[in-house]
Design brief:
By secondary structure, the protein is of the alpha+beta class. Helix content is 26%, strand content 21%. 44% of the residues are buried. The N terminus is likely disordered.
């Protein structure tokens, strides 16, 4: 009864209605069927009207978008026959393995929106109902690092990194039903809530030639492999010489379209089979399974479902690309992330993140601040010049590091003459003002020579700004630190 009420409340919330108002209306009666299993088998005499089909289909599209997104990425990335770079830019690897970059991600990549040039990335996807995976962690010394491990829902499922004091060594990633013995030499076992999982290692690197060289030693030992290949010895891989496969991306088209409306419900069917419901989600699953089954039986119903998916993609999902619709207000025109990578049943922020900036880190690892607008509320545009000034002592308070990144209208990088897309801790030549404050400049045309070190080149057209605070101090976590205004200077 309790779970049924919770699921009903969730459905009502998705529709925008009030639970109180629904409770006061006439009771809903369903003469047939009466169990969740029966609900998944639509009776021949049931004729669902178009409006009802489209209403439930819209809910399903909003709810299932992140997970279909995840499964489609896994299906694509794991086609690689060996660790490689897709289009020469994005790490790809066979199931169970990962691939690593050896430098910042290239600006033309379109695998994921809102990439950063603060870290050396890696990527690997797993199928944990087949076999557990060994995750190898080298000695990173004093360098910030974190392995973000995600389940099918895009929630992080592990605390593995410098913020947690994780030791070098071997960790075992297992599926939800695994009952095997832990081999000797394993530092810890990480249990995924779903058989689908992926890992994105992030290894901090300063923007200096010396650090580009120094980071190569630990990067070579960032690896994953099936448990059957574990021998207790640290392995290494020469990622500097991995092949480039596939076609180069087309940045003008934006991020790869990982969720395609007319294929969505076939892929949602797989999600519903592979990902068990959270407590209270049973009614959601019953509704969506019932809809998918009806669509298989009746081509007209499937047509309505596809039409609803297409419309929802153009409206509800598209609106999540606006930063004002992501997270919560942070002050001075910025929003900040909410429940990042710890979404649970926060379907709003889970779907918003999967559309606008997939694969956030958890709040205790990274906090994100973003805006499309200047301090007066007007859209940021490359035809104007801006500045962002951090008062003395008011840089983002972090134990790790921070950065300010600039994105174009597609939440990607636009190539520029300096090959510069972010500024922050990694830059050792930023110039402070006489009063100890730090001003960063955002403009399409280069500023005066004395400001060049602090300049973020902007593309023509609309743009957005994004602050990352890695391993934030308490003022970051509790929201008492407020980002500075973005000032239009001409």
């Amino acid at each position: 009864m309790k779970n049924g009420y919770l699921a009903s409340t969730i459905l009502i919330a998705l529709l925008g209605a009030s639970p109180m108002l629904v409770a006061q209306s006439a009771p809903l009666t369903i003469p047939h069927p009466t169990t969740f299993d029966q609900l998944n088998k639509p009776a021949a005499e049931v004729r669902m009207p178009e409006a009802y089909v489209k209403a439930i289909a819209q809910q399903a599209y909003i709810w299932g978008y992140p997970m279909v997104n995840q499964f489609n990425r896994r299906a694509t990335i794991t086609q690689a026959p060996e660790p490689a770079l897709n289009g020469g830019m994005v790490p790809v690897a066979p199931m169970g393995q990962l691939s690593m970059l050896t430098d910042y991600i290239k600006p033309a990549e379109t695998f994921v929106t809102c990439p950063n040039q603060d870290v050396v990335y890696g990527l690997g996807f797993f199928e944990l109902d087949k076999e557990p995976v060994v995750i190898q962690v080298p000695d990173f010394g004093d360098r910030f690092w974190v392995y973000a491990i995600y389940d099918a829902r895009t929630d992080q499922i592990a605390n593995l990194g410098k913020p947690y004091g994780s030791k070098p060594g071997f960790y075992l990633l297992v599926g939800p039903t695994w009952q095997g013995e832990t081999p000797k030499g394993i530092e810890g076992v990480i249990r995924s809530s779903t058989e689908m999982a992926n890992v994105i290692p992030r290894v901090q690197m300063d923007d200096t030639q010396a650090d580009r060289v120094a980071v190569q030693t630990p990067v070579r030992e960032v690896m994953t492999y099936p448990l059957s290949k574990f021998d207790g010895k640290m392995k290494s891989y020469d990622y500097a010489n991995i092949p480039s496969i596939g076609e180069k991306p087309n940045p003008s088209a934006g991020e790869v379209k990982w969720v395609v409306p007319d294929k969505f419900f076939d892929q949602l069917d797989n999600v519903l089979a592979k990902v068990a419901p959270l407590p209270g989600e049973e009614a959601l699953y019953a509704q969506f399974r019932h809809l998918v089954a009806a669509g298989k039986q009746d081509p007209k119903v499937r047509q309505w479902m596809n039409e609803a998916a297409e419309q929802t993609d153009k409206t509800v999902i598209a609106d999540f690309f606006k930063w004002q619709n992501n997270g919560v207000p942070a002050g001075n025109g910025w929003n900040r992330s909410k429940h990042n990578a710890e979404f649970g049943v926060d379907y709003y922020n889970r779907t918003g993140t999967s559309k606008s900036n997939m694969f956030d880190n958890k709040p205790d690892e990274t906090q994100y601040f973003y805006t499309d607008n200047d301090g007066s509320g007007l859209q940021l545009d490359g035809k104007h010049d801006y500045q962002v000034t951090f008062a003395k002592g008011q840089l983002p308070p972090v134990k790790g590091f921070w950065s300010l990144t600039l994105y174009n209208s597609k939440h990607l990088f636009s190539p520029n003459e300096l090959n510069r897309y972010s500024l922050g801790t990694k830059n050792k030549d930023l110039k402070l003002n006489d009063d100890g404050s730090l001003t960063l400049y955002v403009s399409h045309k280069a500023p005066a020579k004395e400001k060049l070190n602090n300049w973020l080149p902007a593309p023509e057209g609309t743009l957005s700004l994004y602050i990352r605070a890695y391993w934030g101090e308490q003022a970051i976590l509790d929201g008492s630190w407020v980002p500075p205004k973005v000032e239009k200077i001409k």
